Description:
- By secondary structure, the protein is mostly helical.
- It has a two-stranded antiparallel ribbon.
- The relative contact order is 0.08.
- The chain is about 45% helix and about 5% strand.
Amino acid sequence: MAPLGGTAVHLIYSRSCNSATSMMWLRSPMVAYALNERASSMMQGQEFQHILRILNTNVEGKRNVVFALTKIKGLGRRFADIICKKAEVDVNKRAGELTADEIEKLVAIIQNPRQFKIPLWFLNRQKDFKTGKYSQVFAQNFDAKLRDDIERMKKIRAHRGLRHWWGIRVRGQHTCSTGRRR
């Protein structure tokens, strides 16, 4: 089936959907095909990637760049937004439309945020216990650091560590009537 011309698509948008006949007309297979062709051609170019591999994480190509980057552990929406701005990547772009150079810029900024003048208070690992340095922890390092911190708290028998050890709520929640299942 060949896609319909611009006139049929224009009719879809200019026609009101108040009557039952117009609803039936909108559901016809020809119109649905035309709309799908138009939407997919706008979203996908020649070099569109449906799944990107960034920092050992699969990133969905159909999602907005900022929201797609949040799939990487340790990166939130605000940090993803600031690294897109530092890398001069359009935040309205889809992740699958990124070029190899743009991906390299993003990875470089994620790995070395201090070199790109991202403030210390924006990083997720402030004043590391062992090194005393500020850094951004992401991907596999995130899980390892979290596990190390909990083990350290258990070892020094801190209150938080003991509550982790006992398997009960750590952050001051009520435990009388909730959290009974394990």
